[in-house]
# Entry
Amino acid sequence: MMNALTIAGKQLSSRLFLGTGRYPNPYIQNKAIEASEAEVLTFAIRRVNLSAPDEDAILQHIEKPFQYLPNTSGATSAEEAIRIARLAKASGLSDWIKIEVSQDEKMLIPDPIETLKATEILAEEGFIVLPYTSDDPAICYRLQEAGAAAVMPGGSPIGTGLGILNPYNIERITEKLTVPVIVDAGLGSAADVTQAMELGADGVLLNTAIAKARNPVMMAEAVKYAIHAGRLSYMAGRIPKKKYATASSPVQN
Amino acid sequence: MRLQINGEEHELDVVTLKDVVKHFSLQEGLVVTEVDGIIVDRLHWIDTNVHDGMRIELVHFVGGG
# Structure
C-alpha cells in the first residue's frame, strides 16, 4: 500500500528517522525506538569523557542493527563538518552523514553556504550525504545538485516544537526535488508529522518531540501512526480549500 | 610519556596507540582516534607508536539528533 522509502539504494522499513539525544534514560530510549519502528537513528560525535568513558557510550545500549546516521553537530564551518564526517566514517559503523553546520548558537539556523560546501566535498568522497538545511527551496535544490542523497529542510528551529513555520516552502521543496525530502527539526507532535507528510515529505526526523514528551514511548507510537496517516492522505489527495460551502447532502429530493 | 589527549595532559606508560585506547578501557569497536589531526584506522593502532607531546583525540558516538 505504501511504497517504501529508498535512500542511496537502501530500502528503509520506516519513514521515521529518530534522534537519540535527551531521553530520560537508556531504557526509555530503547522502548521509544522500538515503539517508533524507526530504522534510521541519528547520533552526534564527541570526545570520550576520559574520566567516565562509558557514560555517553550510547551504542552499548542499542541492541538491534540500525542504519546509523551520525551528524556533524557542533561544526561551525564546512571544514569542521568534513572532519567530523571523516571521524564518523572511520568508526566503520556508517558512511551516512547528516551535515549540520551552524554559527548561530541561539537559533541553530543552518549555514547554507558551509553546508553546500561540505555536501559537495563529502558526496565526492563517497559519503551518503543528508544535509540539514533551512526551508529554502533554492538551497535545497542546490544541495540535491551537489550530490545529497536526501535533503533535510527544517520545519522550525531545532528543539522548538514550533512545527512547520512555512508549509508553502516545504511543499515547494517536496515538489521540486527528485531526491527524498526529510523534514528535520522543530516538529513537536504527531500533528506536525502528519502535516509534513501531507506536504509531500518522504520522511521526518524527530528527536526532542519524542525524547521530551511526557511519555516518550507513547509519543513514538503516535508518530509512527502519524507518518502512516500523513503519507496515505498525501497519496489520496486532499480536496482543494474553498471559500464558500458546498452541501454534502442533496439539495433536492 | 606526556600526551595531550582530548585536550587534557596525561602522563601514560604506553608505546602504541592501542595501549592508549586500552589504558582508558575503551570499547575498541566504538572509538575513533585522531593523532596530530590525522585519523588513524583501528587496524593501525598497534603499529602507531606514540611520542611525547602528541595530540590524540578519542571520539565516539553519543546521543544526538
About this structure: Chain A touches chain B through 38 residues (CB under 8 Å). Chain A has one domain: 11-236.
